[in-house]
Amino acid sequence: MPERSNLWGGTFDITLEMEDQSIENGHRHYYDRSAYQSPLEDEVKQGWLLRPAMDMEMKRKKKKRCFNINPTVLIRTLVVVAVLAGFVALVAFLATHRHHHRPPPVQDNYTIALQRALMFFNAQRSGKLPAKNNVSWRGDSCLDDGNGYLNGLEGGYYDGGDAVKYSFPASFAMTMLSWSVLEYSAKYETTGELNHVKDIIRWGTDYLLKTFNSSADTIDKIVLQVGKNSPENCWIRPESINYPRPVILCSTCPALAAEMAAALAAASIVFKDDHKYSKKLVHGADILFKFATKGEGERYAGGSDPPSNFYNSSGFWDEFVWGGAWMYCATGNSSYIDLVTSPGLAKHAKAFWGGPDHGVLGWDNKHAGAQLLMSRLRMFLDFGYPYEEMLKNFHEQISEIICSYLPGSHNFRRTNGGLIELNHGKPKPLQYVTNAAFLATLYADYLEATLTPGWQCGAKFYPKDEFRDFAKTQIDYILGRNLRHMSYVVGFSDHFPQYVHHKGASIPGYIKHQSCQEGLRWKESKKPNPNTIVGAMVGGPDKHDGFQDNRSNYNFTEPTIAGNAGLVAALVALLDGSKTGIDKNAMFYAIPPFSMSRLPPPPVGKP
């Protein structure tokens, strides 16, 4: 700690001053006692001892010097010192307690990247923007969305660069962000981003609550999408949109509804201290999950989600497991864990099927996320019968998945630059890579929290740090440690994509209103985007580490909120966690103490 100093930069050591009792030229003189050395020290001492004779001395015309401590000056000095010390103490107290002052954290690469990745969500906001949105080139937009539908559909997030709001990926993004907060709230707080990320989540969940009748007990429809991709001959900022924005509703959409339930359930735990809002989220999640399953659970016989131009769901059983697991964490209602651990549901979901997308967590495939979440229940809570067998299966499956990410596994190819090809060489690979990095780091932290040194992957034992190292290599690749030496996160490092597929970023902010055709010149411009969309993670390179920085090629250059949510989760997980690991208990706050009320049946043939 630095040496404490007073308001003027000196120390708090006090030197008393002595007063000269004699008068020279009509002035009274003061001396520093520690610096003054009297040439007549013996005479001074005698003067102190012979004070009764001072009357005679005063009659002498010769002036003699003597020294004494004036009580009035001493008292005044002590009073001033006390007042100054009290003032300094008050300032220190107010700085510490009123403003919650903390020493500034060390800004490493992951911290900087995290702060910028969160800023991307500010740039994607729709509706009436808050005063401190901190994106100068964005303004209010699409204020009339959903007029005539319930209380309107203003707000939420644009999915990518074309100003369309999709409920499916937005819900997955909010679920991932909430999960990261529940595990790593201490790390968010250390970086000063906890309130920011919670504000991002709430902006998203406030909108999701508008997409259905969240105050009712039952619902028969939810909003699938607001807006549509504008025609090819239209390139316009969200703030200038004046064409109709249709609201697409859905009456049978089990995957979407279950994912929305997961988002609201996870967020209800994040906002558990705001009892009214948390209760509202839980209620919304409950009616969404019932709408998704029609109350039939594993016996669901309804239809699938309708087709869409983008974000088509390949199935819904995995969302039933994922959503049900989050519902159990948010409510503690045993009916949810009964459902998600039922062998019939796992069979429907193909939870233990080793297909090509096994272990690839994304907006459409929740298997790996659900399995890790269920394994968390097993690792930190002692459930026993009748849940142990299925929880153990989930635990074994996620362990195999995490092992499959390691370089020694042959499940997934890697580019020459080292990027794991989780989507098998298809476009937009980075969104899956960041999710895998988050799962691997979280898995390592679960091992750390249970004092488990590592895990056996086939014939080889891997220390837990190997899983974290995998995550680091992938995130480092995204941040610039690749063959192109390019950061795929905009605004991070000096070399990043300049032609991001994003209408708002590609048109100067001073242009307030324009037609679709007038904006085409900015789409076709050979100049870099005039606005830097800080923190946006673009789609990423191809399987040969190649990248086309081309505004028209969205496979390479378009960012999405689902992709950035995974990036944020991975980055906060990878922050130095030697003293701030996971929060083992926050996620389980609603789960009551487990009681072994149901004992396993006796072995066959025995009474």
UniProtKB/TrEMBL annotation:
Enzyme Commission number(s): 3.2.1.4
Limits of the Glycoside hydrolase family domain: 110-571
Record's catalysed reaction(s): Endohydrolysis of (1->4)-beta-D-glucosidic linkages in cellulose, lichenin and cereal beta-D-glucans
Annotated active site: H501, D549, E558
Annotated PROSITE patterns: GH9_2, GH9_3
Pfam families linked to this entry: Glyco_hydro_9 (PF00759)
InterPro entries on file: 6-hairpin_glycosidase_sf, 6hp_glycosidase-like_sf, Glyco_hydro_9, Glyco_hydro_9_Asp/Glu_AS, Glyco_hydro_9_His_AS
Keyword Transport assigned: no
Membrane-crossing residue ranges in chain numbering: 73-95
Top enzyme class: hydrolase
Keywords attached to this entry: Carbohydrate metabolism, Cellulose degradation, Glycosidase, Hydrolase, Membrane, Polysaccharide degradation, Transmembrane, Transmembrane helix
Gene3D superfamilies assigned: 1.50.10.10
PANTHER family: ENDO-1,4-BETA-GLUCANASE
Protein name: Endoglucanase
